[in-house]
Amino acid sequence: MEALLEFSNGPLFRLCFAIMILGLIRIFLLEIWAIYKAYRKAGDKNMPWKLILSRGLEWFFPVRRIGKNRPFYSIFSFLFHIGLIIVPIFLFAHVQLWKESVGISWITLPYDWAYWLTISTIVFAIALVIARMFSKSSSFLSRKQDYLWPILLLIPFISGFVCAHLNVSPTNYQFFMLMHILSGNLILVLIPFTKIAHCVLMPLSQMVCTIAWKFPPETDEAVCITLNKKGAKV
Amino acid sequence: MKTTEITGEERTKAFKSLRKPDVVEKQKLNVRYHIEDFDVNDRPRRFLEAFAAILKHSNYKMALDHFIRMSAKCSRCATTCQVFQATGDLKDIPCYRSELLLSVYRRHFTVGGLLKGRLLGSGYLTDEKLQEMADSFWNCTACRRCSLECPSGIDHGLITHLGRYILSEIGIAPRALVVSTREQLEGATKNTSAIPVPALKDTLEFLEDDMFEEKSVHIKFPLDVENTDYVFFPAVSDFLMEAESLMGIAAVFTATGDSWTTGTGYFDGINYGLFYSDRMLERVVKEVDKEARRLKGKNILIGECGHASRSAKYFIPTYCGGSSALPVLNIMEYTYKIWKEGRLRLNPDVVTEKVAYHDPCNIARQRWIIDQPRELLKAFCKNYVEMTPSGDLNICCGGGGGTVSIDEIRPYRTTVGGKLKADQIRNSGCEILVAPCANCKKQLRELVEDQGIDCQVVGLHDLIYKAIIFDDSQMVKKESEPETQKKEN
Description:
The structure holds two protein chains of two kinds. Chain A is mostly helical. Chain A has a single domain (2-23, 47-201), classed as Up-down Bundle (Fumarate Reductase Cytochrome B subunit). Chain A has helices at residues 2-41, 49-60, 63-66, 71-90, 92-102, 111-134, 136-141, 144-165, 170-190, 198-201, 205-212, 219-226. The N and C termini of chain A lie far apart (72 Å). Chain B is of the alpha/beta class. Chain B folds into three domains: 8-173, Fumarate Reductase Iron-sulfur Protein, Chain B, domain 2, CATH 1.10.1060; 193-340, no CATH class; 345-469, Rossmann fold, CATH 3.40.50. In chain B, strands 2-1-3-4 form a four-stranded parallel sheet. In chain B, helix 17 (306-319) links the parallel strand 3 (299-302) and strand 4. The longest helix of chain B has 19 residues, at 197-215. The chains are: A mainly alpha, B alpha/beta. Chains A and B meet through helix 1, helix 2, helix 4, helix 7 and helix 11 of A and helix 3, helix 4, helix 6, helix 9 and helix 11 of B.
């Protein structure tokens, strides 16, 4: 068990983390390249930067948004995201691991904050799944991954909470820790290949939508030639 | 703002197809709008070919790749879609509509989709799916309000726009739009309302006489004048249906003395290409640009029309020279500018009714023109009321995306598409609704009529025409009328 833990925590984690980082860099660069190409092709290169920025920021800090439409779902989602981002990055135990292995460290969460943020993330993940199930429109649209993701994300949070805050026997501790690390590793690997890629792609959304409406010139003739419609009547 | 769903009876009426069963059988497509006959064989393959050709020569691929990576299926868009709010039909949720096309893209144009399809042998585009798209994409009013509500930033309006474009390449597009565009690009009259130039001249002369009668000022519609500041392109239907808006615009130019003209070579601002085909969009804006350059105008001025303004503003730079393209203005921008400069005086005692302003989606959604008309209205309408939501979050009239021109779907537009707008107008209690867009005006008039709302729908310049104050030096004494006219002629 200890060897397995050591392996999951060491080489396996490093591999998964590398896949996530490289995968996200790949997908981000691919999109930047696609945006650059589209911009080069566009006939109108005038960009409404102010609008792009303000509409982008509106969703990064959705204070004006969360209370309006689907308020419960929005609030659950917002609070869930806060814990989901902050806890894994700023948890004292995680930062300690980074410090021991690569020698870098950063600000950490106070114990109480970590405790309550973990609980809130668990609660709001469950709330999100329930809200999705019981909303007629969301459940109609949902794919399997839309339910599986919050559930998968719950596993490292619950197992981590058990290890950090509950008195469990050493055997159980090792079991929960293994679950914690393995599920965490699985999440890291899946991030670049699923909808969670929005963690790096979201800042590009408004830009993509703006440039998508900026068509390349002379496409009428090009499409006509490709479809063998040259000279065809309207 | 909450609204009730439509009743079963209204629903049946709204979705009823007026097409003959034999036509539906022949075309193998059961949709509500009339379509010209097209090749019904092998439609999925031809759809995919058209899709591939369009992807090759456009920027849509970038957007579709982004959307399939981002979509979280949260259904927030459902809360703002007026069509879904009215029907309550889950298939009217914008995200579902977008998924119709995104799934085709994923299956046929991405490596993952191709592999999955080959391995599982499923997901190939079928005729049934085409039927669903042909229905769904024309249920949408293309107002793009949902795009503001998507946390992932997915522009469902763009996907609907692309879906309609691909369908049109295999012959599936509303006949009303295609026939008008054909007349505009290939017909003898070169405009969507098929108005011949002599009839246009007669109409304008008649309006000039009318204005002289009413205002005692020689207000002119200059035709084919070269080197003017503004070459004017209204929605051509204004010459038939919105004379007062045109009179208001002519009066404003007379009051300021700025030079403007309308070209008889091409005078139609309407661009249905924006609604169903990028290829037609390109051809039409090129005609506008050509005429403005023929007349050596300095600016292209578009009349009170949302889609015509957006087509010109955003796509003349695209197709006609980028940064060196002629500047495009909407008439409200011009009127606002000269009013701010103190060159336009308006009488605040003429319009006493309760007035509200409706934002046309095509000029408000991108926050292009929102405050200018409001400031103008507040300056001379004592009783101005605001409808909420408004501005870039406005509710569509229900006839957007070209649907207003499809007469056979009027019951759909006034019960489903315009339901939320009707509730909003009723709640505002306005007696005059200002809608500076030819499409909105037509739709809103039909909407208030069908929904039994007591409200008059006008353009901004209709009211300006009533309230405009001319300099005494411009006023002509009635007795000298025949002589003055002779001199002018």
